[in-house]
Hints:
Shape: globular
CATH class: Alpha Beta
Radius of gyration: 17 Å
Amino acid sequence: MDIPGDGNFTGDMECLLKGVDSVLFVLDAVDGVRPLTKKFWNIVYAEKLPVMFVINKLDRDRADFQMAFDSLSTLGVKTVALQVPIRRGYAFVGVVDVLGGKELMFSDEGGPTEAKIFSDLTDDVQLLYDVTVENIAESDEKLMEKYLEEGRLSLDDLRVGLRAGVLSGELTPVLVLGHRK
């Protein structure tokens, strides 16, 4: 079910949420969280549904992933960035898979091509990876113990912890979307 981001649909949203088991919020990379986003968030939060955010319009001139991502903190959510956009100038050319530690570059053949993370993104992605792993570990006591004992978690551990955290409402994953130019 799709509910447009317009205040006229607030009543419809409350009714439609009774028939869904999760919610996908689409957040504009130019504007970030807006007052209506907060209103809709409060309605969804009251229903205790699992939520995921997609930051879109990353192909726009004024798109700012970091601003949009940071604006999610105004909702009081514990975000888990699973992807980060790769832009060259104004062009949206691919995404970084934060947990997988690789770049997925758009290709002319249609599918993404895998590449090692460019050095200009390495430090930022490592910091984001560390925060993401800590957030996932904090959502589960057993994972936290393992993380503190071993200093790392496997990709399988992270996937299981992420799923459990999303279903419990403790974690909110964030993905990115745009059209390549």
